[in-house]
Amino acid sequence: MIRLALIGEEYPCVKALFDGTVRAEGVELAVTRSPSPEAMRRQLTRWEFDICEMAFGAYLIARAQGADVVLIPAFPRRAFFHTQFACRLDSGIDAPGALAGKRIGVAEYVQSATLWARGILERDFGMDAARATWYVERAGSESTGEVLGFRPPQGIDVRQTPGGKGIAAMLQAGELDAALVGALAQGAPEVQTRSGVRALFTDAFAEADRFVRSHGYAPANHAYMIRGALVREHPQLAARLMQAFRSAVACGQAALPRGAALASLFGNEHFARACAAMPEELFAYGVEANRAMLETVLDLAQSQGLICERSCAAELFAE
């Protein structure tokens, strides 16, 4: 029996594994439940856990710096991150490509939600990210990028929000033209209008459908990072953990209310509604089932300056 320490957020798709309903063969997990940003920063600062929920961007930076880690291809969160932008009604932004040249707020530059949102706007809508001014609200020990010693690439204007001010507050105050604010962008139109902002995509459900039809996947932003030495020492460990993650999804699905979509295990209510009629294959685990998505993540990480050299997707994961 191997005793392993795991830290991560308890999403519906992993709850059965976290609470012990599902167990990996030959493994005893000591689970620490934590909001994912805190879990990642804690691991990257002190490396005290064997397994950690980790954002793609942070993982790729850590790996490029020589960290002995690999991923288990279980993806607990997905979203159409680019639909989570809100913009000021008075900003002159009339299309996604019009964010170029604007003041845009994000949690931080290396955040995988930001990586996806910025990349999709560039690739699908022609937005020139290099022409925008990016304001980040996380700083110091609260910033995954700063913990990793990351510096934005030359030519990209990244600024700290004044005093760490929140980007949602700055957007509503007119100090930003747009911001990646998630639930605020997906609120009811009348609420958005009263607050002086609107969603960048007025029909986010239609945009989610367009994206899946165009690309064939729903973007994921996190997987599970495990120490490379453990995988080498215990050749069956990764496969056993992978099976446990899959079994946890099955338990979560069995516990869903009658008629609820599998998508509700992997995202918020808005995401579940967007994906309700989409095939369950969108939420599959494994490298092959997600190869197009993973290769895109690597392309975006390189083009946005998170990494210099690009690997192939299979190299990132335990066999």
Low-confidence stretches: none
The tally of domains stands at 2
* Derived structural class: alpha/beta
Strand runs, count: 11
The name CATH uses for the topology of the largest domain is D-Maltodextrin-Binding Protein, domain 2
Helix content: 25-40%
The CATH class designation of the largest domain is Alpha Beta
The helix count comes to 12
The CA-CA distance between the termini, in Å, is 21 Å
Mean pLDDT: 93
Strand percentage: 15-25%
- The SSE string, one letter per element, is EHEHEHEEEHEHEHEHEHEHHHH
Strand order across the biggest sheet? 8-7-6-9-5-10
The radius of gyration over CA amounts to: 19 Å
Can you describe this structure?
34% of the residues lie in helices and 16% in strands. By secondary structure, it is α/β, with parallel strands linked by helices. It has a 6-stranded mixed sheet. The protein starts with a strand and ends in a 16-residue tail after the last helix.
